[in-house]
Amino acid sequence: MRVGKAVTSGNLVLAGMLMMLLGDFLFSLNDAMGKWLVASFSVGQILVIRSFGSFIILAPMIARQGSDALFRLERPPLQLLRVVMTTLDVALFYAAVAYLPLADVMTFYMAGPIYVAAISHFFLNERIGWRRWLAVFVGFIGVLIALRPSAAMFSWPSLFGLGGSLAFALTLVLGRRLRQTADATLVAWQTVGALIAGLVLSIGDWRSASALDLGAMLALGIVAGGAHMLITRSLKLAPASLLAPLQYSLLVWAIVLGFVFFGDIPDTQIVVGSVIIVLAGLFIFHRKNLVDTVPKDAVARDGH
């Protein structure tokens, strides 16, 4: 009987891992589609139509939980701040990929867990010791290498990518503070925020689109919504500490899709920077998991 339960548990964990990998692939596909579209349409126009696509996915979820849940919000100021951050994240990402290869932009975003570790220390009272602070510092060095230490690192596309990744990290931290709020409610309000921002940004810059273009922009929202649901479900089936490192597959897919669809090949600095960022991030995940699951007396002391 115990063997049967162990097998079932193992299957659920495997299913969770596969869902995480599929969700990451869908996010990467969404990113590649976005890069293709921003070559012809404004970020604002894409945000508007993408938001309607997201509501196609969200509508059944909102109907299931009841529309009243949308207005029973914990900590409204933090909810508003999260909407602002998620909107900045998406808008700045599309602005960055309009000028930079996918792999370059995803390298900035792979530093998200490193930013989260640093931010959480100050805003979530999650103490981190010197080993993780050292990993945070090393991760920042990786970001600087990827930014190319020269005048180019202050170019607008690079700053868009860096700003978007910081907004993404703040979104993750705020998500932890608002974990009592239903996923559908969180995603619904961030979609409303993106819609409003898109309407403002698209004023005077709305272009006629073919049926294919409109379908692609709607698909952005549908694909992203599907990816959100897969990743949310995966976290209920498998431990977060096991799934978190799988998110670095986003970088692999960004390199593959960037080459296949746009002929982009990452240069040496992006490769070196991304390797440093990934290794620093994996160490932070490992150290947090070790501290959280192993008795403190058995863990080499680093302040936590």
Automatic annotation (TrEMBL):
Residues 15-147, 158-284 form the EamA domain. Gene3D superfamilies: 1.10.3730.20. InterPro entries: EamA_dom (IPR000620), EmrE-like (IPR037185). It comes from the Bacteria. One of its GO terms (cellular component) is membrane. Keywords: Membrane, Transmembrane, Transmembrane helix. The keyword tRNA processing does not apply. The keyword Coiled coil does not apply. The chain crosses the membrane at residues 12-30, 36-59, 80-100, 106-124, 131-148, 154-174, 186-204, 210-230, 242-262, 268-286. This is S-adenosylmethionine uptake transporter. It comes from Rhizobium hainanense.
